[in-house]
Design goal:
Helices cover about 15% and strands about 45% of the residues. The longest helix is centred in the last third of the chain and has 27 residues. It is α+β, with helices and mostly antiparallel strands and about 700 residues long.
């Protein structure tokens, strides 16, 4: 039965890869709650499991197929060489190379006498025998209608499309050919009409086969919805109604079927949505988009998927590699190659820890973990055996392991995988990660820096990903990084905030957190020994400058070490900068003297004492620089103020000398070189001052 095994393997693979599994019109209907414990006990030796349909699920054991109930009972033993899902109370099974049908208690209702596989359509069984088809009433034990054909499709509105002698026609549920096989191609019936192609023309026919409409346009698809049909003219797509009137002109590069009053359209490689009136209600801005379902549509930007509502508002952010449709308010999502489930609020209710997953069907979804298939319910309970308590290795999360102590959590390992449990041994993060490096407890949310396959990321409780697990390193410190996560990839640095926003792209050699800038989203960045400025996640000032300095009111730049002339961008209204983004223009430029006041947190030592001493020196330098800048702006100075300027210059240089000595004590050569460079640069700048 190699054919049978191959077909089942292909079906399961397609079901999972396509995420959305269509196994009948009632597949989304809530039914009795599954007994996860009972199911788990009976499927541990099963090689394959399939979605539940009509209360029973197909499973295989030792190459044989049977059915399990939602109570966990193996109601039909694994004894068949091949089997398909139950539909309308019957299932097709194969025994000793012959196919027949059984009911839900395993009674044979159609004898094993057919040579090929069969499938259920509506309340009939269609059997492929000797190159033809036979329609069998599911309440009888023998065929009642027979005809020879080469192909047949599912019934729709009481008619099924058949293919015979190179043409398409339609039969009714009794096997009568109500519309002769005369068409080159045909779709299924909807609202009493079907699209057909004949003699090079696209037409609409009714259920009697009478011609309703003959169109001058080509129909690229054979099915339609909501009374609108796709048309194409000179390579552009539009829509016409069933009366032949053009409803939406042919202007799009592609267009898809209507759903919930909207259709996906494509223009210049971007996707958007039109309504049935032809209005482009959501502009073509997405890299990919799929139809609306229950008021939400899947859209893709920069390789990540999220969900929008019918107003175009982003409801669930772009953070997933792939997403499925919502079913019972849950949708499959893929993140970092792992599958989980979110609700309609975008909350991860089942962590992304599975290797594969299907949509929910009758309250259960098929999932794969560690190479084995099983089920998970809507609360996240699955059928995979949990490690016994004596298999878990508990170790306190202390400085030796995570660089941060925790009084609330334990690091737990089993079979080389790590998770987080609280002190009551309740699972916080599943045993899924290669290592968990830090816990960050800020009183609002708890964050965990995790590692998987050599890459690091940040997750919240239940495994919700805050920062993708794709970076070579991630550092965090309230003191040094001011509550930001510094990420590193391929030797380049960037920043994320605690909301998961990438506020500085990971493409710079250094990111400076200047006290006067970072609270307002302003960051000085360095690339190839040149400086620029990132504001609210965008590089507003390119890395072309010898220096970039943020003061209370200005962003000051200098070219090639020339301190005069200089340009300063007025940013005195920082709240406006933060809210609306900084717009660089010629307006607002003014002259200001350069004062070097950059702060490179990248080079701080992990030694708390040295770090605190450096921070104190930086604070004293900033204070002296601010006072010096204030005095330099004054049009006239008293003798005491002139003397104070000289003292401030000396204070700045002295503090830089002391900071350099502290840096040398740390043993960090890069840190020492950086402070030496900054001190020399500051000395040159101070020498250029007029007073």
């Amino acid at each position: 039965m190699e054919k049978s095994t191959c077909l089942h393997g292909i079906y399961l693979l397609l079901s999972i890869l396509l995420v959305t599994l269509f196994i009948g019109c009632d597949s989304n209907k809530k039914m009795e709650k599954g007994n996860i414990a009972g199911i788990s006990q009976n499927i541990q030796n099963c090689e394959e499991v399939y979605p539940f349909k009509e209360g029973l699920a197909l499973v295989s054991q030792n190459g044989k197929y049977g059915f399990i109930s939602k109570k966990g009972e193996m109601v039909i033993p694994c004894q068949y060489e091949d089997a398909l899902f139950f539909s309308d109370g019957i299932a097709i099974v194969c025994q000793e190379g012959k196919y027949g049908a059984i009911n839900k208690i395993g009674e044979v209702i159609i004898p094993f006498q057919y040579d090929y596989s069969l499938k259920t359509l509506d309340c009939l069984v269609i059997l492929n025998q000797n190159g033809g088809y036979e329609l069998v009433d599911s309440q009888r034990s023998a065929g009642v209608f027979s005809f020879n054909n080469s192909g047949i499709a599912s019934f729709s509105e009481g008619l099924a499309k058949i293919f015979s002698d190179g043409n398409y026609g339609f039969i009714d549920t009794k096997g009568n050919r109500v519309i002769a096989c005369q068409y080159a191609d045909a779709g299924t019936f909807a609202d009493g009409l079907a699209i057909v192609k004949q003699n090079g023309k696209c037409e609409l026919i009714d259920k009697k086969g009478d011609l309703v409409l003959s169109s001058q346009y080509d129909f690229p698809y054979l099915n339609y919805s909501e009374g609108l049909i796709h048309i194409i003219q000179e390579g552009k797509y539009g829509f016409m109604n069933t009366k032949g009137n053009v409803a939406i002109s042919c202007q799009y590069d592609n267009a898809f079927i209507f759903s919930e009053g909207f259709a996906v359209v494509c223009q210049n490689g971007k996707y958007g949505f039109v309504n049935t009136k032809g209005d482009l209600v959501i502009s073509c801005q997405y890299d990919n988009a799929l139809s609306f379902t229950d008021g939400l549509a899947r859209v893709c930007m920069d390789g990540k998927y999220g969900f929008i509502n019918t107003k175009g508002r982003l409801i669930i952010p772009y953070q997933y590699d792939a997403v499925g449709m919502f079913s019972n308010d849950l949708a499959v999502v893929v993140q970092n190659g792992k599958y989980g489930f979110i609700n309609t609020q975008g909350e991860i209710v089942i962590p992304c820890k599975y290797e594969l997953a299907t949509d929910f069907s009758e309250g259960l979804a098929v999932v794969k973990l560690n190479g084995k298939y099983g089920y998970v319910d809507e609360e996240g309970n699955d059928t995979f055996l949990k490690a016994n308590s004596d298999e878990l290795e508990y170790s306190a999360i202390d400085n030796a392991i995570t660089n941060l102590s925790s009084e609330r959590y334990d690091l737990v390992s089993c079979n080389g995988k790590y998770g987080i449990y609280d002190k009551d041994k309740t699972e916080i993060l599943p045993l899924y990660y290669d290592m968990i490096w830090n816990t960050i407890e800020d009183g609002n949310n708890d964050f965990f820096i995790v590692e998987l396959d050599g890459k690091k990321g940040v997750v919240l409780k239940m495994g919700t990903t805050l920062i993708p697990i794709e970076f070579d390193n991630i550092d965090y410190s309230d003191g040094i990084y001011h509550g930001f996560f510094e990420v590193e990839q391929n030797g380049k640095l960037g920043l994320f905030d605690k909301n998961g926003n990438n506020i500085v792209p990971c493409q710079y050699d250094n990111v400076q957190l200047n006290q006067t800038g970072y609270p307002f989203g302003i960051f000085v960045v360095r690339q190839d020994d040149k400086y620029g400025c990132v504001v609210n996640g965008e590089e507003r000032i390119p890395c072309n400058y010898y220096s970039v300095i943020v003061t209370e009111n200005y962003i000051i730049t200098s070219l090639d070490g020339e301190l005069n002339p200089r340009r300063a961008m007025d940013i005195s209204n920082k709240h406006q900068v933060y809210d609306n983004g900084y717009r660089i223009s010629e307006d607002g430029y003014s002259i200001d003297d350069e004062i070097t006041r950059n702060m490179d947190d990248e080079y701080f030592s992990s030694d708390d004492n040295l770090t605190n001493r450096l921070l104190q020196k930086e604070k004293e330098i900033r204070s002296a620089v601010d006072e010096l800048a204030r005095l330099e702006e004054s049009p006239s100075l008293s003798a005491n103020e002139i003397l104070k300027i000289q003292l401030l210059k000396q204070t700045i240089v002295r503090n830089y000398d002391e900071a350099l000595n502290i840096a040398k004590q740390s043993g960090d050569k890069d840190l020492a070189r950086e402070y030496e460079r900054r001190r020399d640069k500051t000395v040159r700048a101070l020498q250029m001052l007029k007073r």
